[in-house]
Design a protein that fits this description.
With 370 residues, this protein is an alpha/beta fold. It has three domains: 45 residues, Archaeosine Trna-guanine Transglycosylase, Chain: A, domain 4, CATH 2.30.130.10; 105 residues, Transcription Regulator spoIIAA, CATH 3.30.750; 188 residues, Rossmann fold (3-Layer(aba) Sandwich), CATH 3.40.50.150. 30% of the residues lie in helices and 30% in strands. It has ten helices and 18 strands. The strands form four sheets. It has a seven-stranded mixed sheet, sandwiched between helices. Helix 1 crosses helix 3 and helix 9 packs across helix 10. The radius of gyration is 22 Å and the shape is globular.
């Protein structure tokens, strides 16, 4: 069963403030306990399917289970997601680890009511040096919650050096995208490294995490981003890695660069497209698909024979079928025969639940030019 109950489906709303409530069906039978958010479109987020006190031991048990499952993944990195919201039975709660620091997000009024208990559980179970709450996300405004950032425990430095395999880079818990970095692409970056060869192009490089893996795989990399600040951080990351000298950074609009490279007849052996979300709302889906098609078409035209394109979308509103159809149209318009190599998704520590499609937001593909 999906854990969300929308406001339009609530017959009798609870009278109290945000927190936890017992949920009854139309016949008055108890069906479990849920987080209650009075002003949210998603009014109820189910926590249990049986009566249980939602007390300190509940949060300890759920977080302990999330940590235990991740211990089975054998992740060769010092940064990872420890709690992935609904996928870990902890709706609207995100917990990411950066070395000995935690960054948390409380994304609903219901979970916000238990901030102190959750922080206490994290301190007991993880023993972090510090915990930072990234409350600066738009969804909190819809829940009528305060924004900003709050230090909840200990000390959190401005930058933290983390490791993925033998590649090192700096995460910025307070300033970086999401909770400080894009941890959900870790396994895709490792895959890019195994495919890397010859000339490589990393588009929307941000802080250079894909570029560093491509260079470590032996490729000569051109990394593009429109943000001067992002490129500056990427250059700092290059200095931490022996293979970083194989990366050339270009501060420019990716759409323009791809167009110019295509017009000049350039070719690359490995290309990564990892753009920001083009479709943040459902009503922007068609314009987003046009954007995805444009960059993928150009990338396909730039591939040398046998070259690989690794392409991604983090837009939840762009479904798997939408993304694959877009790639088919891009290949047709590019006039290239593209071999389908494999479908890709988010890293294993960001689990997707079959009954909760919202937990599977990152989709990607690897295709090869014939």
């Amino acid at each position: 069963m999906h854990p969300w109950i929308y406001r339009s489906d609530v017959i009798d709303a609870p009278p109290g403030d945000a927190g936890v409530v017992d949920v009854l069906d139309e016949r008055g039978h108890a069906i479990g306990s849920a987080l209650w958010s009075p002003v949210s479109t998603i009014s109820l987020r189910m926590l249990t399917r049986e009566p249980r006190a939602i007390d300190a031991s509940f949060w300890l048990d759920r977080i302990r289970a999330a940590l235990a499952w991740r211990a089975t993944l054998d992740i060769d990195a010092t940064a990872m997601r420890l709690v992935h919201a609904e996928a870990d039975g902890l709706p609207s709660l995100i917990v990411d680890r950066y070395a000995d620091v935690l960054v948390v997000q409380f994304l609903s009024a219901g979970i916000e009511a238990f901030r102190s208990a959750i922080v206490d559980a994290l301190v007991e179970l993880v023993r972090p040096r510090g915990i930072l709450a990234r409350d600066d996300v738009p969804i909190r405004r819809h829940e009528r919650l305060a924004g900003g950032q709050t230090l909840l425990h200990g000390h959190v430095p401005g930058t933290i050096e983390i490791r993925e395999g033998d590649v090192r880079w700096l995460a910025s818990p307070a300033e970086g995208q999401k909770t400080g970095a894009f941890l959900d692409q870790r396994e895709n970056r490792a895959r890019a490294r195994r495919l890397a060869r010859g000339r490589a192009l990393d588009c929307f490089t941000y802080h250079g995490a894909f570029a560093l893996q491509l260079a470590a795989g032996g490729a000569d990399v051109t990394a593009i981003d429109a943000s001067a600040e992002a490129i500056a951080r990427a250059r700092e990351n290059v200095a931490l890695n022996p293979a970083g000298s194989a990366i050339e950074f270009v501060e420019a609009n990716v759409f323009d660069v791809l167009h110019d490279l295509d017009e000049r007849g350039e070719s690359f052996d490995t290309i990564v497209l990892d753009p920001p979300a083009f479709a943040k709302r459902r009503d922007s889906l068609q314009s987003a698909l046009r954007g995805y098609k444009e960059i993928n078409l150009r990338a396909m035209r730039l591939l040398s024979p046998g070259g690989h394109l690794l392409t991604f979308s983090c837009s939840y509103h762009v479904g798997d079928a939408d993304f694959r159809t877009m790639l088919e149209h891009a290949a047709a318009d590019a006039g290239r025969t593209m071999r389908w190599i494999e479908w890709r998704g988010q890293a294993a520590d960001h689990p997707a639940i079959v009954q909760i499609p919202e937990t599977a937001y990152l989709k990607g593909a690897i295709v090869q030019a014939a």
